[in-house]
Specification:
Blueprint: E1 2-7, E2 10-13, E3 18-26, E4 30-39, E5 46-51, E6 57-59, E7 67-72, E8 77-82, E9 91-100, E10 107-110, E11 114-119
Parallel strand pairs: 2-11
Antiparallel strand pairs: 1-3, 3-8, 4-5, 4-9, 5-6, 7-8, 9-10, 9-11
Length: 120
C-alpha cells in the first residue's frame, strides 16, 4: 500500500502563491504518474495537473500558465506551485499517485486532501 501526505494548503489572497507538496511512502516498486486534483463545493473532482515518470506534464486549461507541477523521485514527492491564484481556485486539493506495487503494475492512491482558500 501507498500512503500520501499532503501539505502546503491554506489561505492566500488573490494574486498570491502557494506550494503544495505530497510525499508518498509505503510499499511500492516505482511511482508511475503523480498528480493533483481538486474539488470545490458542489463540483466534481477535476484534474489540475499531472506528471508522468518521464516528466511529461498535463494541465487543466484553467491553470495553464499559473500552476507548475514537478516531482522529486529521490524523495517520492510531487509539488504543485500555484501562482496568480484566483478565488475560483478555492477547493480541496487531492494528491493522486499511480504506483507499481506487488499487487498490480498501476494502482491508484489518493491523499486525504488539503484545503486551499483564495480570498478576493
Amino acid at each position: 500500500q501507498v500512503q500520501l501526505e499532503e501539505s502546503g494548503g491554506g489561505l492566500a489572497q488573490a494574486g498570491g502563491s502557494l506550494r503544495l507538496a505530497c510525499v508518498a511512502s509505503g510499499s511500492f516498486f516505482t511511482i508511475n504518474r503523480m498528480g493533483w486534483y481538486r474539488q470545490a463545493p458542489g463540483n466534481q473532482r477535476e484534474l489540475v495537473a499531472r506528471i508522468n515518470s518521464g516528466g511529461a506534464t498535463e494541465y487543466a486549461d484553467s491553470v495553464k500558465g499559473r500552476f507548475t507541477i514537478s516531482r522529486d523521485d529521490a524523495k517520492n514527492t510531487v509539488y504543485l506551485r500555484m501562482n496568480s491564484l484566483k478565488p475560483e481556485d478555492t477547493a480541496i486539493y487531492y494528491c493522486n499517485v499511480e504506483a507499481h506495487t506487488i499487487i498490480a503494475y498501476a494502482m491508484s492512491f489518493w491523499g486525504k486532501g488539503t484545503l486551499v482558500t483564495v480570498s478576493s
